[in-house]
Structures are given as C-alpha cells and as structure tokens.
Amino acid sequence: MKTVLNVLKGKLIVSCQALENEPLHSSFIMSRMALAAAQGGAVAIRANSVVDIAAIKETVSLPVIGIIKRDYADSEVFITATMKEIDELMAVEPEIIALDATDRPRPHGESLAALVEQIRTRYPSLLLMADIATVAEAKTAQMLGFDCVGTTLHGYTADTQGRMLRENDCGFLRDVLATVTVPVVAEGNVDTPELAARCLELGAHTVVVGGAITRPQQITARFVAAIES
Asked: For 163-181, what is each residue's pLDDT tens digit?
C-alpha cells in the first residue's frame, strides 16, 4: 500500500465533493467529476461519503482518499471523526482514509491516539492521512504513526481562522515540511495552478485541489467578484 503514496508524488489530487446544500450534490455527478479529473491528468481523488466513493470507484481506477463528514453535537471535529466512520468507509475500501487530526476535543471525549490505535488494530494495512491545522498537530500526527499529513484544516480552526496557505510564500507549508519527515500533502484553498506548482516546488509530496476545479458556484463567484470590482 505504501506504493500508493509513491504514485501521488509530485502529482495532482482532485477533491470531488458536494455537500447536501450544494447544487452538484449527487454521487453520479461526483463520479463524472472524477472522470473529468482523471482525463485531465489527476492521479487520485479525494471524496466524501460511501455512496460517492462507490460511484467514483465504479467510474475511474484512480486511488481514493476517503472521508466522511458528519456533525457531532459535542465536538467541532467532523472529518472522519470516529471509528464508526472508519468502519463505514472500509466497506468501499479507499486506498487512504483522511481524518481530522487537530487537537480539538473529539466526539464522546475520545482521544486521537486511542482512535489511531483502534484503526491500526482493526485495519493494519490502511494508509492514514492526518488533516491538521498547526505545526504542532503535524508533529503529533507523525508521532502517532500517520502515513502522511495534510495542511487541510489550516485556516478552518479557531486558532488559525482565516489564514491562507498562500500567505508568506506558503510559510505554513514550509514550516510543516521543516518539522516532519512523513509525506506532506498541500491542501486547503489551493486555488490556482501556480500555487499548486509552488507547493510542489517547496517540497510538498502531492497537492489536493478541490473547489477551484469542482465547485462551479465558487468559480463563478470569483469571476463575478473580479468583474464587479
């Protein structure tokens, strides 16, 4: 399975996701988005939900980074938050599963370390990606044995709110790269081809692009904002 990470090195992953309140919410549409991404040269897909991943795997032969987004009343953690989501995802066997690895309190008071230990016991060959927001969280994720870390949640937690990956010539990404030795996935508001290329140039193992490719409402809004300004 480690060879999956080798396939991703220096390449583009496309995130094909649409939540229930978005116009493209449909496993069929996400599968066609994945096909379009594959035809464009993407080497993997990041996808949310069992039904979307199943449809994507029926349509393309690319590896999938699987997640399940689910809200819990007692926690802000919502990306593959508990063992329940891991078990559900394993029904469709994504090559990698990503989960929130921030230091925020988790559902039911469970610790990240306990969750990782449980995953490793039940699915020892599964590759795990840590979605982190800070350098300290990246360091902890490596210590816990994650196979790779992603900058996915930088800018989305209380202590990083509003920060962008592009700031200070990808300063946060460079700090993470200087801190851990596991592969680093550049993800989160990678909104131009130039920024994606810069992340790889700085040493990111791979880069994930989502909304800039697969969320036409966001793309349209950017054009409208530029025109109106």
From this structure: 999 999 999 999 999 999 9
